[in-house]
Specification:
Layout lengths: L1 H9 L2 H34 L5 H18 L3 H15 L3 H37 L6 H11 L3 H16 L4 H24 L3 H28 L8 H6 L8 H31 L1 H38 L2 H28 L1 H8 L3 H9 L1 H24 L2 H22 L5 H29 L4
Helix pairs in contact: 1-13, 2-3, 2-8, 2-12, 2-13, 3-5, 3-6, 3-9, 3-11, 3-12, 4-5, 4-7, 4-11, 4-12, 5-6, 5-7, 5-11, 6-9, 7-9, 8-9, 11-12, 11-17, 11-18, 12-13, 12-15, 12-16, 13-16, 16-18, 17-18
Length: about 450
């Protein structure tokens, strides 16, 4: 963190932010549309007469998120490698990278659907939710699994566009998809009375619509690139297994990193479920606010990822440091603004999501953690983007592993007597530890790197 602050102060933010902002704002709007969807799900279900539907979606979506987001390396790894290929002016390789990622996405989607039939019941048994929630959560998960091929393909498409320094197409894809999902939520949940199953079917329909739109935009983008080889020649390379090695290496590191992060989220949700229906529902609301925060700050991290990757590919150290300083300055200002918004609008935020009094009471008790999290997590989010651009995926893996095993679980274990408050304490400590650990690695990287 200290190193990032130093870089930020050295470089004139007022001068450099003008070059970064055109890349940032489409990602920022794209990312904000994602938690907006979850917020609408939560708000609609939270205003139904019974809390069990909201609890079921909270549990079910945490399981599906674990399955899908554990494969989020398809997005991150694609952006990391493509941005460096673009920096080296190797546009043919950037197209080949997407094709390989798409092949991996299809194979993994088949695996997810097959394993999901076994993993969902096991996960629900381990989470031990209330008896009125479990069957609803299981049904939600089985429906959501059907979207795996489209969801994973969308990861690769969005990752490729960001790596190409094109953030407006992902904006179009995500805004269209989430707007459609919200409309379908209203139709399926309220109009047809499908409750938690309706939220699942809305997501499935929206994901396949996104995949079709994304492929159309990809085909249009290809016509704008200075490709030396045609697409047919790139397709022939898909059978060359050694060509997959860089992608598989990066994705292995990111898989471990993402699996640890999602394991923490899943454990967090499971412990809340063991406490009671109202606690898990309250935590679901607060996590929606956390997701809103993380997606907003990730807009700057994604910009850093693409621009740092390009600077690394060009071997331009000055540009690399410039990007780190400009994107971090804007991210820090945004984090401060988010925390202030939460402080001033606490009652508004909570009333927006639910009118169930026990849920409101528990959410209010834990709300201070949500206020603190933007300032605790901004450094980890930003360094994630910088590390991806620089290709430091191994460091991402090991810092996440160490913070999960050496910080989160010990803090939770020794604070169990605090109940749900102890759970939030461990979660915040884990995120702050990530910022500290990654900041130390970044300082070492700047000292030892030969970029430029």
């Amino acid at each position: 963190m200290k190193t990032l602050l130093k870089i930020t102060s050295i470089h004139r933010w007022q001068h450099y932010h003008r070059g970064v902002w055109p890349l940032v704002w489409p990602i920022l709007l794209s990312n904000l549309s994602v938690p907006l969807l979850g917020a609408v799900d939560t708000a609609i279900l939270g205003h139904l007469p019974e809390a069990r539907f909201l609890g079921a979606v909270a549990l079910g979506s945490s399981i599906i998120t674990m399955l899908f987001w554990s494969l989020g390396f398809l997005r991150m790894g694609t952006t990391s490698l493509v941005s460096r290929a673009v920096g080296g002016h190797n546009f043919d390789e950037s197209v080949a990278l997407w094709l390989r990622s798409a092949v991996l996405a299809f194979l993994l989607s088949v695996l997810v659907i097959g394993l999901g039939q076994w993993l969902v019941p096991v996960a629900l048994k381990l989470m031990a939710p209330a008896t009125d929630i479990s069957p609803l959560a299981a049904s939600y998960c089985q429906i959501r699994l059907l979207s795996a091929p489209a969801t994973l393909l969308n990861y690769t498409l969005i990752g490729w566009f960001i790596g190409q320094q094109d953030t407006r197409r992902p904006l179009l894809i995500l805004v269209f998809t989430n707007a459609l999902n919200i409309v379908l939520d209203l139709a399926f949940i309220l109009g047809m009375g499908l409750n938690s199953d309706g939220a699942a079917w809305a997501s499935v329909c929206a994901e396949y619509s996104a995949a079709l739109l994304g492929l159309a935009l990809f085909a249009h983008k290809l016509r704008q690139l200075p490709l030396a080889a045609r697409l047919a020649q790139q397709l022939q390379k898909l059978t060359q297994l050694p060509a997959y090695l860089p992608l598989l290496t990066v994705n292995r590191h990111l898989f471990v990193r993402t699996a640890c992060l999602l394991g923490v989220f899943l454990f967090f949700t499971a412990q809340g479920a063991r406490t009671g229906t109202h606690v898990v529902a309250a935590n679901a609301i607060l996590l929606q606010l956390l997701l809103l925060t993380s997606h907003a700050l990730d807009g700057f991290a994604h910009a850093a990822e693409a621009l740092c990757g390009k600077a690394t590919g060009e071997q331009n150290r000055i540009e690399f440091l410039r990007v780190c300083g400009a994107t971090t300055s804007m991210a820090l200002a945004t984090a401060l603004g988010i925390s202030l918004t939460f402080v001033l609008g606490k009652s508004i935020w909570l009333d927006l999501f639910t009118a169930i009094e026990p849920v409101l009471a528990e959410a209010s008790r834990q709300f201070n953690w949500v206020i603190a999290l933007p300032l605790l997590t901004i450094w980890a989010y930003q360094l994630d983007g910088i590390f991806l651009g620089a290709g430091l995926t191994r460091a991402m893996q090991y810092t996440m592993l160490s913070c999960t095993l050496a910080v989160f679980f010990p803090l939770w274990y020794f604070s169990q007597s605090w109940g749900n408050t102890g759970l939030w304490f461990a979660f915040c400590g884990f995120n702050f530890a990530r910022s500290i650990a990654m900041g130390w690695v970044f300082k070492r990287y700047l000292h030892l790197s030969q970029v430029g």
